[in-house]
Amino acid sequence: MATLFTADTHFGHVRLLRPDFGTPRPKFSSIEEHDETLIANWNATVAPGDTVWHLGDFSYKCHPQREREIFDRLQGIKHLVRGNHDKSALDLPWASIRDVGQVVVDGRGLWLSHYAHRTWPRLHRGDLHLYGHSHGTLPGDGRSLDIGVDCWGYRPVGLPEILDALALAGVGTGERQG
Fold first, then answer.
1. Collapsing DSSP states into helix, strand and coil, what is residue 29?
2. What is the mean pLDDT of each successive set of 10 residues along the chain, which is 178 residues long?
3. Whose CB among 55, 74, 97, 144 lies 3.0–4.6 Å from 129's, allowing a Cys bridge?
4. pLDDT tens, residue by residue, 89-116
5. Which Gene3D superfamilies match (predicted)?
6. Looking at residue 107, which CATH number applies to its domain?
């Protein structure tokens, strides 16, 4: 069973499709197409027993019934790290809801937040930081990386791909220390 990460799905967020929006997704002709594409990509990546850490902005102005329908269709055990648009998503049956997360996956310490940080706990021990919110406009700094759907083909991403992306930036991929 894998652990995967994602952020900024923004299910139901109609304005996200407008070209004048700050970080638009003009690839999609309707919010229904957007949502269905993200659901299909999620389920093609995530197996039922996998763990998914969603780092905020699950939905925005999505009707609660539609929001719950989408949530129920997504495979995996889902955890939420709150983002700035997650008011209604807090009512969904997440395995956990946090403001930030600190986890170890395959021996690698990870600091999880919706927002990018310049420093974080255990940075000096090699822990990495995964974030969303910036929709691909804020590049990682070698030890941190945007894992939002805008950066990863509108799908969750696993630690091996994250480590590969960081290695391309010249970052070591050693295991967590003490």
1. coil
2. 97 88 81 97 98 97 95 98 93 97 96 94 92 87 91 96 81 41
3. 144
4. 999 999 999 999 999 999 999 999 999 9
5. 3.60.21.10
6. 3.60.21.10
In-domain check, residue 121: yes
Token digits for 25?
């997704």
Distances 14 to 9, 31, 35, 61, 126 between C-alpha atoms, Å: 12, 6, 10, 8, 39
Domain presence at residue 28: yes
Write down the residue that tokens 């659901």 correspond to: 39
Q: Is the CB of residue 133 less than 8 Å from the CB of residue 148?
A: yes
Quote the pTM value.
0.91
Domain enclosing residue 82, as ranges: 3-168
What is the model's pLDDT at position 41? Answer: 98
- Cα-Cα end-to-end distance for the chain: 25
Q: How many CB atoms lie within 10 A of CB 174?
A: 9
Residue 27 lies in a domain: yes
Composition of the chain by helix, strand, coil, percent to 5: 30, 20, 50
Number of neighbours of residue 77 by Cβ within 10 angstroms = 16
Single-letter amino acid code for the residue at 122 = R
CA separation for the pair 24, 145 (Å, rounded): 20
The span from the CA of 65 to the CA of 62, in Å, is: 8
Number of structural domains, the chain?
Answer: 1
The per-residue pLDDT for 117 is: 92
